[in-house]
Amino acid sequence: MAENSPSPSPERAIYGFVLYLGTYFGFGLYLIWACVPEEWLHSIGITYLPQRYWVLAAPIYLCVAFVFAVIFYVAYNFTITLPVDSINTITDTHARYEGEDTKPVLPGSVPPLYDIPLRQVNKVLYGDGITSYSCDSH
């Protein structure tokens, strides 16, 4: 069984090249449809074409759909975020907080990972009436 890898493979290169050529071919057809007069297209036998309205409408609709998709994505993430007092935001026994690790850290090394308490995150994000962003206990 082959292992999944992000490295290039011959199949991916072929698919990518075909997609590359296909997009340029499609864009060329779009430009021909948008710029060449209909009489010229009818003279070479191309008679079934969408209305010229779609030359501008389709890209505009796609751009607006992209903007609404981004707005919807952000709004959806706000709706599924749990409230602070939810039972699901309580930590478990596997949480590691700063200061609990007794192993010495070598100078210049990467510090160990640890969890940040929800109270400290909210204090930095939303403040507590104090203008300082220090998260130290007073």
Automatic annotation (TrEMBL):
UniProt keyword annotations, A-Z: GPI-anchor biosynthesis, Membrane, Transferase, Transmembrane, Transmembrane helix
Membrane topology value: Multi-pass membrane protein
Protein's pathway: Glycolipid biosynthesis; glycosylphosphatidylinositol-anchor biosynthesis
Domain of life per record: Eukaryota
Residue stretches making up the PIG-P domain: 12-126
Entries under Pfam families matching the protein: PIG-P
Entry's transmembrane regions: 12-33, 53-76
Compartments (UniProt record): Membrane
Role according to the record: Part of the complex catalyzing the transfer of N-acetylglucosamine from UDP-N-acetylglucosamine to phosphatidylinositol, the first step of GPI biosynthesis.
Family according to the record: Belongs to the PIGP family.
Protein name: Phosphatidylinositol N-acetylglucosaminyltransferase subunit P
Organism the protein comes from: Porites lobata
